[in-house]
Specification:
Blueprint lengths: L1 E5 L5 E7 L2 H4 L5 H15 L58 H17 L3 E4 L9 H10 L7 E5 L4 H7 L5 E5 L5 H6 L2 E5 H12 L1
Parallel strand pairs: 1-3, 3-6, 4-5, 4-6
Antiparallel strand pairs: 1-2
Helix pairs in contact: 2-3, 4-5
Length: 209
Amino acid sequence: MELVVLNTSGKETGRTVTLDDSIFGIEPNQHAVYLEVKQYLAAQRQGTHKSKERSEITASTRKLKKQKGSGSARYGDIKSPTFKGGGRVFGPKPRDYRFKLNKALKRLAKKSVLSQKLKDNSIKVLEAFTFDAPKTKEFINLNNALGFEGKKSLYILPEANKNVYLSSRNLPKTKVLTYNEISSYDLVHAGEIVFLEGAIEKFQENLRK
């Protein structure tokens, strides 16, 4: 399977790159994608939620009324969960929401997303480019040349490029990452995926391991 390499004007360069069918041509496994996206989102949670239980409330410990003979329910002190301002029963406690997935499943998830994106014609390969200085306007022109106006796009670089990253940082629908930073969530979230010519083989090599 081959894709034509485009230049920064959105025109074909005449060069092509070969895509591995075992990565870009499999039957998508939606459950694997679901699990990795769930793992990514779980890792973003702070988990700092906390409510006070009965023992943590600062208040009098005096028993409000005698245990028997009143004809109504038994009361302890004012910290009881039945009273306003009392402790909460089984309230949230700080916790870590992260969980583990094996590497083979995470690779399968990425392959599944990429295969679906290729079927949808949402993957492009772009020749290597850089900016002399951070210029958001130049990145907007690049997006427009590729037909991404109003669309979410993900650019995958072979190595970190500060000027390219800074040029895209203020664009809410554009994200720039290196090939080894990609998660299935990034691939799913992007409407259009752009591999720089030097990144495609490195990315494929990562998924073959």
